[in-house]
Amino acid sequence: MSRMATEWRSLRTRVREHRAQLGLSIRVTIAALLSFVLSHLLNVPLPLWTVLTAVILTQVSLGRSLKATIDYLVGTLGGAIYAGAVAVLVPHANEIALAGVLAITVAPLALLAAIHPSFSVATFTGVLVILAPGITHAGPIESAFDRVLEVAVGAITALMVSLVAPARAHALAIEAAAQMLDLLARVLPELFAGFMQTGDATAIGRIQNSIGQAFARTEAIVAEARHERISFLAAQPDAGPLLRTLLRLRHDLVMIGRAAAVPLPETFQARFGPLLAHVAKTAADYLRRSGQALAAHSDPSPLDAVEAALDDYADAFAAARREGFTLGLPVDTAERIFALGFALDQLRQNFRDLERCIREAARRQ
Predict the structure, then answer these.
(1) What is the chain's mean pLDDT, rounded?
(2) Rounded to an integer, what distance in angstroms lies between the CA atom of residue 42 and that of residue 138?
(3) What is the pLDDT of residues 44-68, one digit of tens each?
(4) What is the dotted CATH code of the domain comprising 169-363?
(5) Cα–Cα distance, 36 to 40 (Å, whole number)
């Protein structure tokens, strides 16, 4: 019985972790079925294109769906109008002439798509308008109209599904930010370990890359949230300050990682090793609790433990400097020690900013 309970808790945890992906799966399925039904009710010539459009445009958040729908409709309309005009104005009674018309259609549309990614679908639409008449036995103007109709039905279906069952990008941004904070909490002690012992440069590189990827995901979702807020005049909180704080925290860990690329002298380790270990532990704990508070929309944890650990290190280092402790160190070692001190000062300030962001996020729920 306990094993079943454990498995059930594990399943619930996985569902919570992937609820955005599960929601997307459900919305895509609904959009596909609804667009298929609508295409038959409206006698759309090629339901396949309608269903594919609905599937492509049903995105993980409402903001992304809206942007994708606008880009898709604009690209389709532009490609259909241009290809239809070329097909009407340039005769193509044989295969050679048809190849020439295809080249005249594809070349400028491909160039336009390369310059403006919003028109990426225009090239594909142009090819369909030129070649589909040979399959459907429709004229070029009718073929262009059919393509626009098919895409419009699919796009409207996708947008309707996203509006009825939306995944708000702001909520997804908060979730992504919380995940990034948890990642920072997990890797911070490993970065600090480099001050005491030689670390694996490849592993450190992977850590920094993972932080960069986590920030990039969060940044993309915040952009979607901003698009939602502008498009619908929604009174959603601005995630910009939180995103900027996460970026600064990422920079802090980059500086700490560079300072810890080579272990510090044994005399430094003996005097400051325990203090740095305490800083790493309290900072990681605070990052972990901050992620949990952000995800739960609750007030942030107190900063007292981190502030005390940072104060202890700063006081001990100031006393060591007064004793002339750093005077006999090699230049590169002294530079790394002072870079560490600067990074810790920045970390303190950014933790305070993070505390404010979490508190504001909790108040606006």
Answers:
(1) 81
(2) 18
(3) 877 877 887 887 777 555 556 667 7
(4) 1.20.58.220
(5) 7
